[in-house]
Amino acid sequence: MSHSLNEVGEAKTSELERANATFGSMMRRGRSYSGRERNCVFLNTAKPNGSFANISAASGIDLPDDGRALVTTDWDHDGDLDVWISNRNAPRLRFFRNDVPSNHHHLTLRLQGTGPTTNRDAIGARVEVVVGGSQPLIKTLRAGESFLSQSSKALHFGLGGSDSIKSVNVRWPGGESETFTGITVNQRYQLVQGSGTPLSIEKEKRQTSISPEPIDLPSPESTSRIPLATLLPMANLDYQTFNGDVEPIPNDKGKAHLLSLWASWCPPCEEELKDLTARYQELRRAGIEVIALAVDGLEEGGSSAPDAQKMAKRLKLPFTSGRATNELVSYLQSVHDYQITGAETLPVPVSFLVDANGKIAVIYKGRLNPDDVITDVDHSQGTPLERFARSAPLPGRTLPIPTVSRHRNQYEAQYRFATFLQQRGYTALARSENLSLIKSFPENAGPHNNLGISYIRSKEFDLAEASFREALRISPDHGKANANLGTLLAQQGKIPEALDHLQLAIKSNPQDKKSMSILVRILLKMERWPEAQSILEKALTIDPDSANTHVNLGFALAKQGQLPLAVTHFEKALKIQPGHPDAQRNLTAIRRVMNRER
């Protein structure tokens, strides 16, 4: 498991970046941080063995929420602690009022420091409440007690059956100690540093009305209009006509396109197609061409292509229509997933508004309103900040400061999608996106590294080398750029520099097996046996069942005269992969040498 950074200034490793990317991807797919665990509450039973009782269900907090921050406070001023919990999922905030009846006593204290050695809030003060007949009660005033949260700075003491308080001793953060007397149970006091006299705080009980309210989940037939702050490119993909021919999806430059996916078995789809047919000429005058593609026949056991063709013929669709391909649906699903947290499967109908520059600008889930489409045709215009404001689900204004206007989220979404395009083989489109990122965010190393990979695929090696070097100028410890440049230089015969970059790649990411493999091949070829041995031993800690690694390590050891140890590794290689030719050959040769030496 990748570890978090120990210090703010510590360099991120490729392993950590990869782990963060994987974690972020899981969250975008709707995974739970807590693994769907229910909330738990444990009661201190005050027994000598220090045992706790699980009262989760009895408390009412036993909920499957993805809980985050938890704070305690006497919200209703009745002498016991209530609980606020914030969640990552809905409902985002829950209040739990403590209504457990009790005849026990309590005490609430607020502290005020007067300096110069004590902060005004007295954070760090240690308070000891001395009651009759039991051990003193001790608490420390903290600035935070839970994940991204802070309970009330009023210290609450449950006194149990004790009905008197001998004294309250405060050790202030500056080191001074002070004793307060004249304090009674079931009261609230303010203790001001240096005064020696408690000040009573009068608080009337706060009336809090609580009634259960069911969560109002959206209907499965509900619709959503999602204007995108980050515009992603529409790939040049094909569709099938109802006659079975393969045609490119129209992408006339200078025109917007509404790409709508529908199915013959879907009543909202039919209503949407009727709406688009009735408003077709109006949409065209607004500069929007409609492309309606059926998903019938893409899944086994579902509706078939003839069903969609019959429906299209019956509705007399005036615009381009046909059948979607699996590649098209997969691409549009990825566009959706890279933009929207919670990667749900696309519904039908679902439509994508592609602007005149080939960028996906708006997603419509469920039956759309043609008026929205006509209004949205200009959504992609303007600055990213203006588009961000139009994309917000609630009205408001943006902060006019550089860190906001740079809009880091835009970079992250576009960069992740550019990487996806590269991995899926959309090389030209990925290159275009990376060039766009470099123009907008020139001091980010990732797009330069990705650009270098695209140049390698097109065999433009000089441009690839320049891109990798630019990535390393920006971020010298960029693991992937060092690995890619090292590999490229090794292929070009520039061995000394290749070694340097491969070693830096492994230093950034000790799990980089590919860079280790390339580095080992070079070191073995150069007969640098001890260095090769060191790398191979590290590789075995990552993958102890690699027969080839055991063979190479055995070879390096044999060359250094460590024959018995070399035999051990050749034997392990044969155990993992019986009949491994290199292991068998080397093992036979070494045993002959060892027999002669005897």
Structure description:
- The protein is extended, with a radius of gyration of 34 Å.
- The chain starts with 13 loop residues before the first helix and ends with a helix.
- The chain folds into five domains: 42-96, no CATH class; 105-200, Immunoglobulin-like; 224-391, 3-Layer(aba) Sandwich (Glutaredoxin); 399-519, Serine Threonine Protein Phosphatase 5, Tetratricopeptide repeat; 527-598, Alpha Horseshoe (Serine Threonine Protein Phosphatase 5, Tetratricopeptide repeat), CATH 1.25.40.
- The protein contains 20 helices and 21 strands.
- Helix 13 (461-474) packs antiparallel against helix 14 (479-491) and helix 17 (529-542) runs antiparallel to helix 18 (547-559).
- The protein has 598 residues and is an alpha+beta fold.
Number of domains: 5
CATH homology group of the largest domain: Glutaredoxin
What structural category characterises the helix and strand content? alpha+beta
What proportion strand? 15-25%
Number of strands: 21
In what order do the strands lie side by side in the largest sheet?
Answer: 14-21-20-17-18-19
Average of the residue pLDDT scores: 89
Text of the CATH class of the largest domain: Alpha Beta
- Measured on Cα atoms, how large is the radius of gyration? 34 Å
